[in-house]
Each structure stands twice: as structure tokens, then as C-alpha cells.
């Protein structure tokens, strides 16, 4: 087994020992969807939403929620802790680059959020009869961009935080506005025009709208995909610029 | 006061060469012109008070820090630009470097084994380090001493040619410390070069072939432990209670004595072997019996205190400290 594979395996095992992260990333979005679906009015078609039901709108929202929780809340304290505790330092005395540890964590958080997305779509389909995305490829593309933006945001938070505590605090501070923009409290389509225009400039607001379009069977508009992509570039640049190995 | 002493008789080749190493943090020099060479197969100690620059020095050897100036060569490699090659032949035990709290001892050993082309068999290693019954324990649940022993195992797991141990036995109980020393001696016997940072004088005296004493970022002395001891201001203390008072003039005439103290009828003389002989001869000549006669040699502790005491402070401080211990023991 190559050294990087050994690191990935070891980190996967450690990830499985974090019930808190696993719950919030993998279970919570589907649980939230299931609870929302219990509200009868959310299951009736709404003419104001082009005949869709509220629950239909919430599937892409909880899918994005999983991605944002993984990238912004769960991952940064892990990365900061690895630096703070000298784990990266120890690794840099071995033939394995400490970057492989960070890469493993990013891959695992991405994988967990994709799992969560699949579970949420399955719950929506099987329990509440929410149609699977009609434009599957466009949906997947929007999902991947959203995940990259969330992971890049998490990496930036880890880069800017000196301690695990600061990292957790910034993560939570970023999580709530992110949840708002992706539409947890009010779906983006239902937002007043002025608010919607602003929200569509944020990475997850734009991703949310792109997912909606793909769910409805349209190719997500390039402007939404472009906004999320632009954020990825900015956040990756910021993380690379400010990350310190020590 | 002390000069870099080059051993003329050495047969080994220098495997670590540090020349004029300088490193400052925020304008404050941590290492200020350190030079030394470690021969292959040697146990080389770096001693010094807290904040003297020991850790910074070895971090430059490990390639974890980039020196401001000076050169470092390890087995012909540049620690920073040849870092990838260096990590395959150098094992390091670091200060203040943890592992993931939920990683078990076995998992850590297996993981770090996978990093090296020809890893050591960690079975015997953990046995020697008393970790066999802790293999399924998570790192976060280990005691300080157990963590330390795991770090030593991880430093050795890659079968390195050179191992750098920063505070080898800090946090270990006396038995574990002795066992660890034995392990390091065996590691060296297999041809591995050991660079050891410590502030336990006993450890340096026990393990090291040569020692560099670093003080305020500079090499204050470089010698064998016994060489350092013989250079102390007074290498031997003689203490006794004479059966009747000695003549002051006799005491003043003792050769090589650096100080003579009289306290509660007890005589404490600082000097060397010559002084000891003279005291015995004097007592015999005057037919005085020496009660509770104690002769103690200076230890590396005394040499260390001598070397790291500021110029302005009294040079006899370590000796006075030792003499005080002697009188206390006898009382």
C-alpha cells in the first residue's frame, strides 16, 4: 500500500470515530428533510411555486446543507488542529508530505457530503415522491462546484485560524449566513427580488439556484455556475495564500 | 574560555556538519554561530539551558527550519533542498508534536511503517519500549511517558541512519529512562548516529560520546563528558571534620585549592586530585583524624553550571552549591 493510501485509510478510520461530524454531515440533512415533510402543507402543490411542493424545493437545499456543514463546520477545526498539535510537523519529518494529510481530510469530507446528498435524494424520492433531478448531469456539476466552494471556504477558515477554537468559531459564524443563502429558512426562489439578487452572488445561493434549475430539467444557467466557480478560485487562492504549515 | 576542540584521533567520518549556523526570530537571535560535526556512529549530545537554541539547532538539522546563514550538511544532503531524501535516512523525535487523539498505538505504528521503504519490525521495538500492552489504546488516552515512548518508536521505525532525539526521556520514570538509554545504546551499536538534545546531565554523561554545550545561541564548550568535567573550576570537593582545629596557614598552603571554607567545625576544600593528596598528607603530618571524610568528584552538572553561568556571576556558585549539599548530607 502506498504511503498516501495508508494516510487516507488511517484518516478514514479516524473520521469514522467522529460521531458528531458524521451525524451533522451524513444524517442531519436527511433527518431535517424527513421532519419538514411531516408538515402537510409542505406536501401540497403550491401555485406560487409553479405547482411544486415546498418539499420538492427542500431536497436540493438539504443536499447543499450537507456540503456546507462538511466543508465549513466540520473540516476547519480538524485541519487547524493538525497544525496546532504538531501532527503536520511530525509528518514533515517523514518521507510523506504533510499535504497528504490535508488532502485526505478534504477528500473524506467531500465523500461524506456526496453520500449525504445521495441519501437525501433517496429519502426525498422514496418517502415523499420527490422526482430525481431531470437534468442529472447539470445537477451533478452544480453539486461538485458547491462542494469545491464549501471545501475551499473551509480550507480558508483553517488557514486563517491559529487555533482549533478560533477555527470552530469562524466556522459557525460562516455556517449560519451560508445556510441562509442556500435557503434553509427561505428557499431562494421564494425570496423577495432584491434579496434574491444579492443571494445569487453568494457561492451557495448561486449553487442552490443552479440545483433548482437542474432539478426542474433545465441546464443550470452559466451565470450561477460561474458565480460559484469564481468563489472557488477566490477561496482556493486565499487558502493557499494564508495557510501556514506551522 | 573554552575552544572548539577537534579530535585528532577520530577515525569516523562526519555525518552531520553544522557550520556558522544562525537563526533569529523577530530580530532576536536564537542560534548565533553554532558549529559542530558529528561522526558516524556517535552519540552526540546537545546540552544547554532552556531557550539556549538547542531545539532550533536540531530543527535546522532536520530541515524543519531554514537557517538565516551558515551551512548544515547531513550525510552529504542539504536538509531543506534535499528534504525528501533526508527523511528516508533521518528519524526525528520532536518536542511538542502530538498524534491524532483517536489513533491507536498500533495504528500509528502501522501508518508510520507504511511511510518508509524498509521499516523496522515494530514488534520488538514496542516490546523494548514497554508498549505491547498499549497497542489498542488511543493516543489521547496514553500517559505522558507512554506518549514519549511511542514517539521514540516512531523516530526509529524507518530504520534511520541518523536519529535526532529532542528531550529523549522527558516525562519518563527512572526505570523507563534506564530502559530507553539501553535501547539507544543498542541502536547506536547497530551503527546509527544519534543526535540527542537533553537537559538531563546524567543522561548526557551516561550516553554521549561527545557533548556540545550551547548557551545563548553559541557553543560554550564541545568535548567528551569527562573532558568537560575536568575543565570545571574545581573538579573535586573534600569535606571532613578534623579531630582538632587545623592551622589556617596549612590550609592556605594547600595546592590547587580554589576555596577553603570552615563551617560548624567542618572543613570544605574545593580543588583537584592534587589537593586531595595534600589534605591527606597534611592530616597525617599533623596526626589529625578526619571524621566523616567525603571526597566527591564534580559531575557534568557542575561543568554545565560552570559553563552556562553568566560571566558576571560568581564562578564558584556550582561548587558552593555542591558543598552545601555535602554539609547537609553529613548533618
UniProtKB/TrEMBL annotation, chain A:
- Residue stretches making up the ABC transmembrane type-2 domain: 20-246
Q: Where are the transmembrane segments?
A: 21-42, 57-79, 100-124, 136-160, 167-188, 222-243
Q: Which GO terms describe its molecular function?
A: ABC-type transporter activity
Any one biological process term the GO annotation gives:
response to antibiotic
InterPro entries to which the protein is assigned, alphabetical: ABC-2_transporter, ABC2_TM, ABC2_TM_bact-type, ABC_2_transport
Question: Main location per UniProt?
Answer: membrane
Location comes to: Cell membrane; Membrane
PROSITE patterns in the record: ABC_TM2
Q: Name a GO CC annotation attached to this entry.
A: ATP-binding cassette (ABC) transporter complex
Which of UniProt's keywords are assigned here? Antibiotic resistance, Cell membrane, Membrane, Transmembrane, Transmembrane helix, Transport
Per UniProt, what is the membrane topology? Multi-pass membrane protein
Q: Which Pfam families match?
A: ABC2_membrane
Q: Which family does it belong to?
A: Belongs to the ABC-2 integral membrane protein family.
Q: What is this protein called?
A: Transport permease protein
TrEMBL record, chain B:
User: Taking every annotated instance into account, which residue ranges of this chain make up the domain ABC transporter?
Assistant: 16-241
Q: Which GO terms describe its molecular function?
A: ATP binding; ATP hydrolysis activity
Q: Which residues cross the membrane?
A: none
Annotated GO biological processes are: response to antibiotic
Q: Which SMART domains match?
A: AAA (SM00382)
InterPro entries with a match to the protein in the record: AAA+_ATPase, ABC_transporter-like_ATP-bd, ABC_transporter-like_CS, ABC_transporter_ATP-binding, P-loop_NTPase
Q: Record's CDD domains?
A: ABC_DR_subfamily_A
Report membrane topology: Peripheral membrane protein
Which one Pfam family would you cite for this protein? Answer: ABC_tran
Q: Which GO terms describe its cellular component?
A: plasma membrane
Subcellular location per UniProt equals: Cell membrane
Keywords, in A-Z order: Antibiotic resistance, ATP-binding, Cell membrane, Membrane, Nucleotide-binding, Translocase, Transport
Known Gene3D superfamilies for this protein?
P-loop containing nucleotide triphosphate hydrolases
Chief localization: membrane
PANTHER family hit by this protein: ABC TRANSPORTER ATP-BINDING PROTEIN (PTHR42711)
The entry's protein name is Multidrug ABC transporter ATP-binding protein
The record lists the organism as Planotetraspora thailandica
Amino acid at each position: 500500500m502506498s504511503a498516501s493510501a495508508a494516510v487516507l485509510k488511517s484518516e478514514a478510520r479516524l473520521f469514522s470515530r467522529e460521531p458528531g461530524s458524521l451525524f451533522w454531515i451524513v444524517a442531519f440533512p436527511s433527518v431535517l428533510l424527513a421532519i419538514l415533510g411531516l408538515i402537510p402543507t409542505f406536501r401540497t402543490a403550491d401555485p406560487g411555486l409553479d405547482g411544486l411542493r415546498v418539499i420538492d424545493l427542500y431536497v436540493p437545499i438539504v443536499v447543499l446543507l450537507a456540503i456546507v456543514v462538511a466543508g465549513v463546520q466540520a473540516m476547519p477545526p480538524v485541519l487547524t488542529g493538525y497544525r496546532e498539535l504538531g501532527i503536520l510537523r511530525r509528518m514533515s519529518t517523514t518521507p510523506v508530505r504533510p499535504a497528504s494529510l490535508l488532502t485526505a481530510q478534504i477528500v473524506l469530507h467531500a465523500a461524506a457530503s456526496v453520500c449525504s446528498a445521495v441519501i437525501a435524494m433517496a429519502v426525498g424520492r422514496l418517502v415523499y415522491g420527490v422526482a430525481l433531478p431531470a437534468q442529472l448531469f447539470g445537477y451533478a456539476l452544480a453539486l461538485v462546484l458547491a462542494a469545491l466552494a464549501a471545501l475551499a471556504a473551509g480550507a480558508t477558515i483553517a488557514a486563517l485560524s491559529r487555533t482549533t477554537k478560533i477555527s470552530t468559531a469562524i466556522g459557525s459564524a460562516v455556517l449560519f449566513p451560508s445556510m441562509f443563502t442556500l435557503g434553509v429558512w427561505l428557499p431562494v426562489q421564494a425570496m423577495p427580488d432584491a434579496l434574491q439578487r444579492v443571494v445569487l452572488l453568494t457561492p451557495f445561493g448561486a449553487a442552490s439556484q443552479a440545483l433548482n434549475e437542474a432539478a426542474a430539467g433545465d441546464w443550470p444557467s452559466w451565470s450561477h455556475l460561474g458565480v460559484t466557480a469564481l468563489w472557488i478560485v477566490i477561496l482556493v487562492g486565499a487558502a493557499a495564500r494564508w495557510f501556514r504549515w506551522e | 574560555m573554552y575552544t572548539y576542540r577537534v579530535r585528532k584521533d577520530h577515525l569516523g567520518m562526519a555525518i552531520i556538519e553544522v557550520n556558522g549556523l544562525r537563526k533569529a526570530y523577530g530580530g532576536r537571535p536564537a542560534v548565533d554561530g553554532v558549529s559542530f560535526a558529528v561522526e558516524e556512529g556517535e552519540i552526540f549530545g546537545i546540552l544547554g539551558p532552556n531557550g539556549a537554541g538547542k531545539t532550533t539547532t536540531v530543527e535546522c538539522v532536520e530541515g524543519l527550519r531554514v537557517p538565516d546563514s551558515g551551512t548544515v550538511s547531513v550525510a552529504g544532503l542539504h536538509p531543506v533542498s534535499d528534504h525528501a531524501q533526508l527523511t528516508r535516512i533521518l528519524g526525528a523525535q520532536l518536542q511538542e508534536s502530538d498524534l491524532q487523539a483517536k489513533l491507536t498505538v498500533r495504528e500509528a505504528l502501522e501508518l508510520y511503517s507504511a511511510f518508509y521503504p524498509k521499516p523496522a519490525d515494530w514488534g520488538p521495538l514496542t516490546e523494548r519500549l514497554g508498549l505491547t500492552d498499549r497497542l489498542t489504546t488511543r493516543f489521547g488516552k496514553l500517559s505522558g511517558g507512554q506518549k514519549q515512548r511511542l514517539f521514540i518508536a516512531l523516530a526509529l521505525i524507518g530504520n534511520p541512519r541518523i536519529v535526532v532525539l529532542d528531550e529523549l526521556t522527558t516525562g519518563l520514570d527512572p526505570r523507563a529512562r534506564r530502559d530507553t538509554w539501553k535501547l539507544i545504546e543498542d541502536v547506536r551499536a547497530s551503527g546509527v548516529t544519534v543526535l540527542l538534545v537533553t537537559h538531563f546531565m546524567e543522561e548526557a554523561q551516561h550516553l554521549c560520546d561527545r557533548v556540545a554545550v550551547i548557551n545563548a545561541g553559541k557553543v560554550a564548550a564541545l568535548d567528551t563528558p569527562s573532558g568537560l568535567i575536568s575543565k570545571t573550576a574545581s573538579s573535586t570537593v573534600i569535606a571532613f571534620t578534623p579531630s582538632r582545629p587545623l592551622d589556617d596557614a596549612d590550609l592556605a598552603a594547600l595546592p590547587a585549592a580554589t576555596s577553603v571554607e570552615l563551617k560548624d567545625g567542618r572543613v570544605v576544600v574545593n580543588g583537584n586530585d592534587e589537593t586531595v593528596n595534600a589534605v591527606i598528607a597534611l592530616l597525617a603530618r599533623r596526626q589529625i583524624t578526619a571524621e566523616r571524610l567525603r571526597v566527591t568528584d564534580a559531575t557534568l552538572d557542575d561543568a554545565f553550571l560552570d559553563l552556562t553561568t553568566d560571566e558576571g556571576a560568581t564562578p564558584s556558585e556550582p561548587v558552593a552549591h555542591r558543598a552545601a549539599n555535602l554539609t547537609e548530607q553529613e548533618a
